[in-house]
Each structure stands twice: as structure tokens, then as C-alpha cells.
Amino acid sequence: MRRNTRKNWDKRSRNRRGPEKPAGKRDLEANERVTRVVPPSRETKRLLEGIGTPRVGPFKPDEFQLEALAALEYEDVLVTAPTGSGKTWIAREEIRRLLDSGRRAWYTSPLKALTNSKYHEFIDEFGAEKVGILTGDRKENSDAPLIVGTTEIYRNQLFDSLRGGSEVSADLVVLYEAHYLADEDRGHVWEEAIILTPPRIRLLLLSATIGNAHEFALWLEEIRGVRCGVITGPMKRPVPLRSAVLLPDKRLLPLINENGNLNPEILALAADERR
Questions:
Q1: Which regions of the chain are under pLDDT 70?
Q2: Residue 95, class by beta-carbon neighbours within 10 Å (0-12 exposed, 13-18 middle, 19+ buried)?
Q3: Are residues 187 and 254 in the same domain?
Q4: What is the domain range of residue 74?
Q5: 56 lies in a domain?
Q6: At what angle do helices 87-100 and 112-126 cross, to 10 degrees?
Q7: Residue 128 in domain
Q8: How far apart are the first and last CA of the chain?
Q9: CA–CA–CA angle 181, 183, 186 (5° rounding)
Q10: Residue 262 has what DSSP assignment?
């Protein structure tokens, strides 16, 4: 009985406790430190300056884009231009011209994810009935006049056509990320695709990182017996890259300072981590 009485008394005592004490000054200061917003530094403001949605206006192609389209009328074309400068626009407009005249095209890329992305992009542009996709995982609308696929699948179709005595049904082949030719593991796929593509099929090669473009073009001419023009885009990215580091305290630090050096605050944080 005593034990039960003690338990009941304990419960009653706990129930009799008054409301919790209001937070003290120290507690409020601690919470304030957690939620306090650190004002951006001058470097951070400079990092974020100008970022936003650009003004809507009529599209005007660059001179190198128009030059590439004109050259595709009579020769292979290698386009070297920074990322974001509009290489895909060249391919899209040439594909549009071919589809409008009842001809066919292949668009190859090195990655399945990129291939899927281009597939949906071209469906929006040309309509689902005109676009198919061929990868190791997907095979849809394979008789469409425009096929989007990985470079390996296109190369395999070339091998199949050789064995079967048939021809690949295409008037243009776009080799996106053509610099993969130099890749140690997969470069032979691009090399075989270029060598086996019949000279009657135009090649449009797109890359942002080919440094020896004219040497590459001469090799293409020797292999295919078709002249290859080199079109060079702007030297700098139209939309420059901005690198920053987001810290656990939610501060954003520019990776590079105004002098072009690694941010000293990031170096200090890295040094602390190594200790």
C-alpha cells in the first residue's frame, strides 16, 4: 500500500507543477544566434550580381551559327564553341531543314541521361511522331525520321548494315561531344563511327573542348574523303561560370577572390579540418 501511495503521490506532485518558466536571457540569445542571418559580404554580393531571368527578346543567331549551317550544305562541319554558346541550335536547325524536305537524321550523345534529355527536347520541337530513341535501355519509334541515341548504338547499326549489306537510313549524323574520340576507354567507338559512316552522310561534330580542331578536321578529310570545315565560336562562355562554397552555417563564399586566387577563408577552413 505504501508503494502505491508513494506512486500516486509522485504523479500528483508532477501534475501540480506550475507552467514552465519563461526562457531566460541566455536561452533567447542562443536561439537568436541560431537564426541570425549573416549579411552577405562584398565578395558574395559581387558573386550573385546579375543572376536572374534575362529579358525576353527576339532570338538572333550568332555569325558562327549561320556560318556552320551554310557550310553543312556541301561539307562535314566541326564546330568548337564554349558550353552555352548555341551549338545545339545549329544541329536543331539543320535537322529541321532535313525533316521539312523529307530526309532523315541521327543525333548521338555519349550519355543515356543526355540522350533522354535531347529526346524530349526534340519531341517538343518537332513532334513525337517524328522522333525516336535508341539506347541500351529504350527503343521507341525506331522508324522515325529523327533518331536520338547513344554513339555506341549508332556504331552498332553501322556494323549491322555492313554485315547485312544495307545502308544506314540517315542524311545527317550529329556527333555531340565529339572530343570523346580522345577518351582512353570509349574513344574507339567514336573513331569507328566516323570511319564507318558513308561519305554520302553529312557529319556535324560538336565540342567545347577540342584544342586541335584543324588537325582533327584534316584527319576526318583523310578518313572520309569529304572536306571538313572548322567553325569556331566565341572564345569565352556567353554565361560565365561562378563557383562558390556553401558552408554549414549557410554562408556562401566565392571560391575565387577578386585577385583570382582561392578564397583565403576557404583555405583557413580546410586547414582547420586537417588539424
A1: 1-40
A2: buried
A3: no
A4: 63-232
A5: no
A6: 50
A7: yes
A8: 61
A9: 85
A10: B
Report the residue count for the chain. 275
Q: Which of 98, 106, 100, 103 is nearest to 147 (CA)?
A: 106
194/85 same-domain check: yes
DSSP letters spanning 28-47: HHHHHHHHPPPPPPHHHHHH
Is residue 174 domain-shared with residue 111, that is, in the same domain? yes
Q: How far is CA 71 from CA 66, 67, 77, 81, in A?
A: 9, 6, 7, 16
Cβ neighbours of residue 227 closer than 8 Å, sequence gap 6 or more? 74, 75, 76, 221
Whole-number Å distance between alpha carbons of 101 and 61: 22
**160 and 222 share a domain?**
yes
Q: What is the pLDDT of residues 110-156, one digit of tens each?
A: 999 999 999 999 999 999 999 999 998 899 999 999 999 999 999 99
Compute the distance between CA of residue 216 and CA of residue 12 in angstroms, rounded to an integer: 88
CATH number at residue 180: 3.40.50.300
| The total number of structural domains that make up the chain | 2
In whole angstroms, what is the distance from residue 275 CA to residue 264 CA?
17
Question: pLDDT tens digit string along 218-241?
Answer: 999 999 999 999 999 887 877 777
Cβ-Cβ contacts under 8 Å for 157 (sequence gap 6 or more) = 168
**Domain-embedded: residue 6:** no
